Amino acid sequence: MTSSFEFSTYPARLSDAERDKALRVLRDGVALGRLSHDTFVRRMELALAARRSDELAALVADLPQENRFSRAVLGTVEAVSGFTVRLRRAWQAERLPKLLLPHPAHTHPLRIGRDPANGLRLNHETVSRVHAELRRQGGLWVLRDLGSTNGTTVNGRRVTGAVVVREGDQIAFGRMAFRLSAS
Question: Which residues form the FHA domain (predicted)?
Fold first, then answer.
């Protein structure tokens, strides 16, 4: 029998930080091709069920761990490359020709394409005869691709069906790109 001053000696519970560190090493290992997907999944399950830090250490013992310096360098490179991508997009956005949105009172959809009957005729080989349509619905502008061959994109993402657009968005019909503007 134990007295009230004696405690059982169960190992201390793992902290979330220790578990997260082991999971990060496992993720890096699979990203670098050092672990197969099945091995990663199994080790992740074991890491989540681990009760002691030595169990976590055994799961990542064969994987190289980054030191603080390499982690800082890689983080800096990621930040700089992300910045250059954003800078390139901003540079291209300012150089794009403006596509003026119709007046909000305009109730008919604006058809866009190569066909002369369209409200906006774009004479380019990547634009379909009837490519897309822009209409005002419930106070919002909605752009719908009409089954074009080369697609319609908004801010670099291909439109399937319809999407809400607003001033400043970059839209492209085939390879003809514009920046939406209200004025």
Answer: 110-159
**C-alpha span between 165 and 109 (Å, rounded):** 14
Q: Which residues contact 92 (CB under 8 A, 6 or more apart)?
A: 170, 177
Residue 141's alpha-carbon distances to 59, 98, 105, in angstroms, are: 53, 16, 12
Domain span holding position 165: 98-181
Tens of pLDDT, residues 70-122? 778 877 888 888 787 777 766 665 678 898 888 877 778 999 999 999 999 99
Q: Between vectors from CA 149 to CA 146 and to CA 154, what angle results, nearest 5°?
A: 65
Domain containing 169 — which CATH number?
2.60.200.20
DSSP string, 73-99: HHHHHHHHHHHHHHHHHHHHHHHSPEE
| SS3 state at 49 | helix
Residue 120 near residue 133 (C-beta atoms within 8 A): no
Two tokens at 56?
A: 């976590």
Q: Can you give the pLDDT at residue 115?
A: 95
pTM of the model: 0.51
